[in-house]
Amino acid sequence: MSHYYNPIHPTVNSQNKSAYSSLGGAVQGAPHSAFIIPNRRRVPQSIYQPTGKWRNQTGRLAPIHAPISIDHKGYSRQGMKMIELYARGAFALSQMMEGADDRVLAYTGLKRITLHIRWPGYETYEWIRSVELNTPSGPISRAELAAIISQNFYRYFEKMQYSSTAAREWQISAMGISFDKLVLVSISNVFEDAWQAEVAVDF
User: Fold this and answer.
1) Within-domain flag for 16
2) What total of structural domains would you count in the chain?
């Protein structure tokens, strides 16, 4: 029996269980069974670490903020397609996303965070962008943050699509991995104000 998947009003599968993993788990290769969609795989990213000198000065490597999950309502730890996060407006996302209006970083007191994209095979092409956490409507919401992350991945893929890489499985191109295949699972604090997106790909 086939099931129609409605992203705006999804039904809750009886086998839908939480399969939480941090970005670190994704780097180590979390099992594919964590996703309901069988051809969805986590991207094995390397985690940003500062230089040895900076580590010695700060003396702290452990993240201090919990990961921020991005999910359709009723689908825990499954993520959302970045193309939807990029293209849809605030109202549509509020209908689709679990906790879309939550002010997810208001408790931290941070004014901005730094997003690092480290796609496998493209680590030499640094993508580091500052994300402001205060918006005209107040502290940034989960949906607003997810949209900004997706916008950055869109620009990153636009820039990298003609760059070569030895990591053929993860090659960014129209014939390889394109932006419309990306899924944003969560956003994790990896060091101080540095954050990375936990990303999956629908092959």
Assistant:
1) no
2) 1
pLDDT at 195: 96
Start-to-end CA span in the chain (Å) = 23
Mean pLDDT by 10 residues, the chain (203 residues): 44 39 43 78 91 53 82 95 96 96 93 96 94 94 98 98 92 96 96 94 96
The domain containing residue 126 runs over which residues? Answer: 61-202
**Inside any domain, residue 79:** yes
Question: Contact 36/13 with Cβ under 8 angstroms?
Answer: yes
Give the Å distances, CA to CA, from 5 to 10, 164, 167: 6, 36, 32
Q: Is residue 116 part of a domain?
A: yes
Q: Which residues contact 70 (CB under 8 A, 6 or more apart)?
A: 79, 80, 85, 97, 142, 146, 184, 185, 186, 187
Q: What is the pTM of this model?
A: 0.81
Express the helix, strand and coil content of the chain in percent, nearest 5 each. Answer: 30, 25, 50
Q: Is residue 113 in a domain?
A: yes
